[in-house]
Design a protein that fits this description.
Elements: H1 3-6, H2 13-22, E1 30-35, E2 41-47, E3 56-63, H3 70-78, E4 82-87, H4 112-121, E5 126-135, H5 137-145, E6 154-158, H6 164-169, E7 170-171, E8 174-175, H7 177-186, H8 191-197, H9 204-207, H10 233-237
Parallel strand pairs: 3-4, 3-5, 5-6
Antiparallel strand pairs: 1-2, 2-4, 7-8
Length: 238
């Protein structure tokens, strides 16, 4: 079954939730430090199928919420995929400045997703076929990597923003106060609220978070999942 057919949700269970809250790797994972172009090290877990000699098609999940997401790991391992879980820059156990999403797209000198894919393609256990999955923030990391990482084969962003200015920060030109005032403290980056407030109109700052403007550069097929009343509904449609 391919990447589209095998996407599904399963219950986390108490153990998975505990590992996520503690920021610990999943059982059986090999944890490595992957160097980005500026030598910042991102903590990354590698899960390989118990059967088969490889190389394997590989599922990549770049996360703002820890590296243990059983709803992705076990179902894909059972189907013969390698699964790679990575803490994004400055979050979890990864090095670097905690500036959420800044290094995940095409900022000058900061292209962590592209660097991670290049690293994956050099691994002997990866057969070159790379797909991505994840929802909300994990979907946003996929969206940001799509215009600058043509080497991967498929992405499945779920309930993800396409244009940060319109979808996350200033819906209809009005600050999304409840969303931002709750989410930034949750990820322990409250200063980001002031950073977003300092840019009340669309400008070059927001251009680095506008995937829709980069659509002509995206060559990878994607399956976009969303809900009618989701906070990023318009981003999914766009």
């Amino acid at each position: 079954m391919g990447i589209w057919g095998c996407l599904r949700r399963i219950g986390w269970g108490c153990c998975g939730a505990l590992f996520l809250l503690l920021g610990l790797p999943a059982c059986g994972a090999e944890t490595v430090e992957v160097a980005m172009r500026d030598e910042t090290l991102l903590t990354t877990d590698i899960h390989l199928p118990a059967t088969g000699e490889g190389p394997f098609p590989t599922i990549l999940v770049r996360s703002t919420y820890g590296r243990n997401h059983p709803q992705f790991i076990e179902p894909y391992l059972e189907r013969g995929y390698a699964v790679v879980m990575q803490d994004v820059r400055g979050m979890g156990d990864s090095e670097g400045e905690a500036y959420v999403f800044r290094a995940d797209g095409w900022q000058p000198g900061l292209k962590d997703a592209a660097d991670t894919v290049a690293w994956l393609l050099a691994q002997p256990w990866c057969d070159g076929r790379i797909g991505t999955v994840g929802g909300s923030a994990l979907g946003i990391t996929q969206m940001l990597m799509a215009p600058v990482t043509p080497e991967f084969r498929a992405n499945v962003p779920e309930v993800a923003a396409t244009n940060f200015y319109h979808d996350i920060a200033y819906q209809g030109g009005v600050l999304r106060k409840e969303l931002l005032e709750n989410w930034f403290p949750l990820i322990e980056q409250p200063a980001m609220l002031d950073r977003y407030k300092a840019e009340p109109v669309y400008n070059d700052f927001w251009g680095y978070y506008d995937v829709a403007s980069k659509a002509p550069n995206i060559e990878t097929p994607g399956l976009f999942l969303g809900g009618w009343y989701d906070i990023f509904q318009q981003g999914t449609l766009d």
